[in-house]
């Protein structure tokens, strides 16, 4: 069973966002990293880029192929996790500690459409 953390919001595409004030740290869930297999490359978004909720955010490549990652909320990329350039496998080792990028959230109401941990757990169970 996948590790699903409380205090995060989740998408149906298996991204998570941890909100701190008006900043959101985005990554992929434990469920997603298991499905992808060994992650070998992360194409980080550009700092300053605008992202839209549900829009392409970045690409994560694994031994199984390339996977588009979608933004759970709209905003501007304000920080990227550069450590992933040298160690993309960190996502496999700690998917919740290895965030991909942080955005300045432009519309906090979009977060209401995301799942909490309990809803996401039920969603993942229905996928198996």
UniProtKB/TrEMBL annotation:
Transmembrane segments: none
Pfam families, A to Z: GCV_H
Residue ranges annotated for the Lipoyl-binding domain, each copy included: 23-104
GO cellular component: cytosol; glycine cleavage complex
Assigned keywords, A-Z: Lipoyl
GO biological process: glycine decarboxylation via glycine cleavage system; protein lipoylation
Cofactor entry: (R)-lipoate
Cofactor note as given: Binds 1 lipoyl cofactor covalently.
Quaternary structure annotation from Swiss-Prot or TrEMBL: The glycine cleavage system is composed of four proteins: P, T, L and H.
Family assignment from sequence similarity: Belongs to the GcvH family.
Known function: The glycine cleavage system catalyzes the degradation of glycine. The H protein shuttles the methylamine group of glycine from the P protein to the T protein.
Protein's name in the database: Glycine cleavage system H protein
Gene: gcvH
